[in-house]
Amino acid sequence: MDLIVKIIQSIEDPLLLSLILIVVTLSWIFKTHIVEYVKKIKNKKLTKKKNKIASLKNHDVFPTMNRVRNEVANMKFYTDKKFDRVKTLMCFDFTNHKVIQCSKRMEDIVNIPKIDTMGRNALKKLIFDEQNLMHQGYIEAIKVEWRSRGIEEDDINYVIHLFEKFRYDVVASFENRINAIFSNDSYSTNFELMLAIFEMWAMGIDLLPRDMSTTFESLNGKFKNLKYRR
After folding, report:
1. Residue 141, exposed/middle/buried by CB under 10 A (0-12, 13-18, 19+)?
2. CA 206 – CA 224 distance, rounded (Å)
3. What is the per-residue pLDDT across 1-56, written as a single tens digit (0 to 9) for each?
């Protein structure tokens, strides 16, 4: 304190002295707020430096997909109260391809070069593009699978149409949530944006057994007598 007094006494310019006194006074009055602000800035810098999108390779969405695949693998479908082997196998094969394709694309996304510094609009476009590619990937994969099992093209398209009909609310929610996430200023870094996206995807994956069950229950006995080759 004595040092501050001596410094003030040594200043001869009245204007400069007044300015210094104002700054010192305001600093003293708002010292608590200043300290909190400095801490917040430091924590923000540390968070930006520490959290990288590549670390999302360990996100819960990946074990969630494996869990969901196992859950569907244990489902059994019936037609006229008798076990329907074909319908049961078709449901698992569809789920398996969806999990494989989505997992692969999500793993690729987190390893995209410079994704942490990508512009906000560019990142948003990337998410929509990748989501479309996931969909195209598993649809094409299951078509190839089912053709090899002897299922007619019209029947393949019928099942896919049924699934997409029951899955529509989830897909529409994805689009709405992505727009909401990218318009929210609370997500200040690309890592925070991608974390929110991965949480959203994990929620959608959790609903997959419901949509698969609804889809294949709706088929009734359509494929019961099909020789679904293994």
Report:
1. middle
2. 28
3. 555 555 555 655 565 556 666 666 666 676 676 667 666 766 565 545 568 999 99
